[in-house]
Structure prediction request, 282 residues.
Amino acid sequence: MTTATILNGKQLASSIKTSLKEKISNLKQKPTLAVIIVGNNPASETYVRSKEKACLETGINSKTYKLDENIQETELLELIDLLNKDNDVNGILVQLPLPSHINTDHILHAITPIKDVDGFHPLNTGLLLKKSPKAFIPCTPKGILKLLHLAKKDLTGLNAVVVGRSQIVGLPIANLLINENCTVTVTHSKTKNLKEICKSADILIAALGKTEFITKDYIKENSIIIDVGINRTTEGLKGDVKFSDAIDLCSHITPVPGGVGPMTIAMLLENTYEAFLSQTNS
Ligand code: GUN
Prediction:
């Protein structure tokens, strides 16, 4: 039995950040990212702090707008309108989830597509489906694709199974993998025979948000496994995949932590840099 290769997202993210830092140091003006966080969700606060720190390390200006849990949708829309019009702001990110009294789509659709560094505006979703190079690709799926390419340059013809159909991860990664010539199956909580379907996967993307749900019965030998789960447990951060089961079966796997998470942040920095270049014709 051979042990799988670890796809080290922390290391890859670090080399991407170093190269971005170098490119940004040569710019006359620095890119700026505006981050909006509503309420006091502890996980969201941690993510936003990590994003601020990564911006600082790379030479991107970050401005965080921390808004009260009870803010009205109209006030949030007014802030987005100001940021859309502000030439000194290149990227806008609204940390999700938003409180339930706010319609998330109203907010995400209000961000001008050219500053939509999260890639959640329907125009960017459409551009992704059209394989347009102008699309902002959502950060987690974009990072996952880079990790997959560490394992294998050409993904053509591989069976990819995505577990989870979220707007943030499942749906965009499915479309990116179709664009890579994979045969893609998207599964979800209503899927029948999930085990059998997962067991046919050359590439398994676990993005369902259930601690160590994917055990050995779901895993094909020599497959590539991407674990998107970030589950906070009493024993620390755990993925959606039971790592100790997977490591002896698959050929490559992302760890949790240190796999997909750092790549999401690196891709946010890359998208912000690209937004800056396209807005300033640099
Ligand atoms: N919440 C969880 N993941 C994400 C993400 O990629 N972007 C935003 N804005 N919020 C999130």
The CA atoms of residues 216 and 245 lie 5 Å apart.
